[in-house]
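Q: I have 320 residues here and want to know how they pack in 3D. Can you give me a structure?
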Amino acid sequence: MVKPSKGIGLVLVIVGATFWGVGGTVSQKLFQQFGVNVNWLVTTRLLIAGILLLTVQYVYKDRSQITAVLKNRKVAVQLIIFGIIGMLAVQYTYMASINYGNAAVATLLQYLAPVMIMVYLLIRKQTILTKRDFFSATLAVTGCFFLLTNGSFSSLFVPIPAMIWGVLSGVALAFYTLYAIPLLKQYDSLVIVGWAMIIGGVALSIIHPPWQVTVTTVSIEQFLYLIFVIVFGTMIAFWFYIESLQSLSAKETSLLGSLEPLSAVATTVFWLHEPFGKFQWIGTFCIICMIFMLSVIEEPPSKKGATHHKKDSPSKVRSI
């Protein structure tokens, strides 16, 4: 496949990140206005998006990897763990947080994952505490406080279930990001994420088969929203984001990837007209600053050679 120019790469990452953010807001509309079941949407989204990503791999990239990843027993077991505890957990907790609250808060809480990874590596003594880490953690905690309380010490501005699921989504994304590293060193990200989506979708199908639809009638509007969430908000968003890495650095894609929470907040507030207090805007600003800081400022070499990867940056294995 021809390597895209930097200009095309910029367009791809901007469109991909925006689709991710808007996809969360559209999911919120499906849950809260059309009564779509969370389990059904997560199952359907994972299965269809996973098949589409593997189709892209088959058509445009090394198709032999699609089956090769399953022939290695150790890798296959890792892939099953990644698909259920990583992919499915990230998708379900994120969607559940949207269902109980809104897409803006759910997306911003999920973006606490980099700080959770940093804390985990500090506990494991695989990295050292730097000024960047300290200020990033401070911004994350401050932003989270304002986002959830709107500046009030006596009450929560966000429903407790939405908060719990959102924080769990950040934890799941932290695991997802770290666990994917060895898999990404061996196989293309489209293969790993595509199979992980299918595995996660099959696992959830045991609890809620995709053919069990609770909605009796589906309007054209609802159908178009479903298509957007599954195709544009998942498959195309991820594909575009991955392709942008062909011409942009991981730092550039991570930085422009911050358009995801921005687009989620903007569409939640201005399209769905969700109330968003002034202190919540401050909290949003703090979390966006944290993302920028982690994307722009270089981290020092970690101990024991454990600094992760430049090639296999978390930006390469996005999930939502």
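Q: Anything worth noting?
A: Confidence is low (pLDDT under 50) at residues 302-315. The radius of gyration is 19 Å.
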